[in-house]
Amino acid sequence: MEIARERDINFLFEASCGGGIPIIRALNSSLTADEIDEITGILNGTTNYMLYKMSTEGCEFDTVLKEAQAKGYAEADPTADVEGYDACRKIAILSSLAYGYFLNYENVYTEGITRITPEDMAYARELGMTIKLLATSRKVGEDSFYAMVAPFLLSQKSPLYSVNDVFNAVFVHGNVLGDAMFYGSGAGKLPTASAVVADVVDEAKHLHRNIMTNWSSHPLKLMDMSEVEGRFFVRVKGTTVDCVKSAFGEVQIVNLKELPDEFAFITSTMRQGEYEERIRALADNILTMIRVKD
Amino acid sequence: MEIARERDINFLFEASCGGGIPIIRALNSSLTADEIDEITGILNGTTNYMLYKMSTEGCEFDTVLKEAQAKGYAEADPTADVEGYDACRKIAILSSLAYGYFLNYENVYTEGITRITPEDMAYARELGMTIKLLATSRKVGEDSFYAMVAPFLLSQKSPLYSVNDVFNAVFVHGNVLGDAMFYGSGAGKLPTASAVVADVVDEAKHLHRNIMTNWSSHPLKLMDMSEVEGRFFVRVKGTTVDCVKSAFGEVQIVNLKELPDEFAFITSTMRQGEYEERIRALADNILTMIRVKD
């Protein structure tokens, strides 16, 4: 990027995030009036397809992975997709463009979808929600950011809720624009070609004029993950609602008829560090924890 | 536009369609590899808010119009919104940009939402669908287009289904890109300002270089509306399923418990001219017709 700027040429990479979705050009040339304070994307089509199948058909992770591989959506080695590494690299690129500071993908907290089960999906359904692998970064306060990739419980209010199958989408919040979302095909040779050709046309229109101006090499300052606030959905076994309340105070309890030996709760908003401290009292009882997207 | 091109200057109007949504810049500089064959938008926030309220709260058109006026969403004279004129002008602009031929808004078939009732919404709910005012244009065959603004029944499969409240969205289908959607605030001073400032920045970046290159003054050839194909949802009274079937062949029948004196049906795909011919047999029985978006 620096060499391109020094030499007045262009290095464009629209297809790197969200396939055919024109999100990089939008960040670079349309949202120029805005101070962007959140980007949250469904940036990996393979895992979105898998979670969608798990949600609608109730199948296990392994079954749906084999199906995704048979359809050519997942590689023989699916690690980069299912562990969230692919989404992590993409949110690093988008965040760097949006905030004007360089976010190294190696610093992004990343969690994949391998632990998600049909039981988690059943709880999500009961709550009128769904589970998506979100790649998200946010500006919190003056100069402080967080970034992470993780499965999230998502309510129907979110425009990302109905992004199904192999589709990708990028939600952006700007201080002037408000909420915006860009939706489209995240992969496949044709959508990718659409983005690449648009880059070539843009380069031809801007010979000897550098246009990707908002990329900086100054590192983005990331908060410690323990400082990041959120709500937490927790499934527990062998404990009581009273024990949960004595650890977490008021919580939302969720029961599923088909899982009588366990229950789940959603905490109020708290720092992750606080959650980790409070959950210690239930260390022997916890089955799984999934973040809730607010 | 022609003067701007002749003089190597720019005339930009991002805020004219979809408020803060960067759709015009996307059509102009991102979807350059694509032959676009459909644009379908929710382009009027006022009517979208009204239909959303009618759908979720079951209120009458007049009630929700008063509420929208009280909230400042609808003007004292709401004609341009509720009769679809505003959405009509916007689809004319977007279509002209997308197809490279000039679409005069006066030639666009336009129907508003004043006839939509809570009963229609109840049928939509029963079908797992919703009713939205869509502004749509489509390329059908080599050089033939249609364009219209009308209320449509929309299924949950459509990414436009969950565009609620005053939000706008533009769905685009390109032959390379496939499906894409742009979502955001369609009105309000801040989102509009976001689009205007982005135009100013773009003009400053392109002094003496005309960048809006795909606008033509050659008129777009519109098909006759009678040739446009679709499915039709029809509510009827004082007739029988057999009569409907003898007029339309196989149809999908919808009954609502709360409306025992009537029923509705959805036709198979047919030309609008054919629909109009067949519906004559039920002329005395028809309560309302709403198109179905496929």
Explain what the structure shows.
The structure is a homodimer of 294-residue chains. Chain A has ten helices and eleven strands. The first copy, chain A, has helices at residues 2-6, 23-29, 45-57, 61-70, 79-82, 85-99, 118-126, 189-205, 241-248, 272-279, and strands at residues 36-42, 109-110, 129-139, 145-155, 167-174, 178-185, 229-237, 252-254, 262-266, 270-271, 286-292. In chain A, strands 1, 2, 3, 4, 5, 6, 7, 8, 9, 10 and 11 form an eleven-stranded mixed sheet that branches. In chain A, helix 3 crosses helix 4 (61-70). The A-B interface holds A 14, 20-22, 25-26, 29-34, 156, 159, 161-163, 167, 174, 176-185, 188, 190-191, 193-198, 201-202, 205, 211 and B 14, 20-22, 25-26, 29-34, 156, 159, 161-163, 167, 174, 176-185, 188, 190-191, 193-198, 201-202, 205, 211.
Radius of gyration of chain A: 20 Å
Overall shape of chain A: it is globular
Number of helical segments with 4 or more residues of chain A = 10
Q: N-to-C terminal Cα separation of chain A, in Å? A: 35 Å
Total beta-strand segments of chain A: 11
Helix content of chain A: 25-40%
Mean pLDDT of chain A: 95
Largest interface (CB within 8 Å) is between: A-B, 42 and 42 residues
Kindly estimate the percentage of residues of chain A that lie in beta strands according to DSSP: 15-25%
Low-confidence stretches of chain A: none
Largest sheet of chain A: 11 strands, mixed
Oligomer: homodimer
Which structural category do the helix and sheet elements of chain A fall into? alpha+beta
Query: N-to-C SSE series of chain A?
Result: HHEHHHHEHEEEEHEHEEEHE
